[in-house]
Amino acid sequence: MAAERTTGSSISRALRVVEAVAAAGDGVTAKAIARRLGCPLPTVYRALGTLVEEGYLVRLHDVRGYGLGYRVAELHRSLTDQVRPPAAVRAVLREVHTAAGAAAYLTVLRDVDVVVAHVDDCTEHPRPSAMRVGEPTAPHALAAGKVMLADLRPGRLTELLARSGLPVLAPRTVTDRRSLDRELMRIRSDGAAVEVEEYQSGTAGVAAPLLGRGGEVSGAVGLSVTRAEFAARRWELERVVRAAADRMRSARGDDRWVAGGRY
After folding, report:
1. What are the pLDDT digits (tens) for 10-35?
2. For residue 255, which of 55, 86, 205, 214 is within the disulfide window of CB 3.0 to 4.6 Å?
3. Residue range 80-261 in CATH 3.40.50.880
4. Taking the domain 2-68, which CATH number applies?
């Protein structure tokens, strides 16, 4: 039992070291890491040695410190590959982005996280800055996230919100559970979700559900534009995103994409 506790604490300590290096950036020293973590220097050196040997950190001799290793990038690529939709679905997103002149994106449910599976954007039509492929998003604030929340059973919805919370992200973020529940009821009735300066200041968007083979919501496709543009194009963008969701369902065909286990 003592050996198990030691192993567990060693793993936790190694993870904290990786996080400290990531936060500090290239060139952080072992002494700085020890001060940041409140750990004895010999303990930090042991963790650093193992992490460098395994490729999770690198020793940067020119700056006499440490930096993140390339295994970290490999892990992130593996994660994005796992949630990445089929080529046919990505092609629809590309066409929608080009035709609508708006950043187009897809979210999926991965256990109790709403994750951004793919984004198609450009410098002229950028995604919100907080939207990163392969990472959880704030479902209560993003149009596509709200689409997915609206399909969840009450118990699962409570579990997901307990994990993600209802943090304030922008001027009009909904942070009250009762208000959110009322909005989710409207989304179930309307079949689409809208957000205006809830996810990011100055941006707005609309999303529609991507239905699975059993009729359940297996993902959501969304469009993001500036608030001013959304005010002028709201109904056009909603028509586009609804049509895109229908096209994606057909384009998926027999592809057994199982991001989040919802297909």
Report:
1. 889 999 999 999 999 999 999 999 99
2. 86
3. no
4. 1.10.10.10
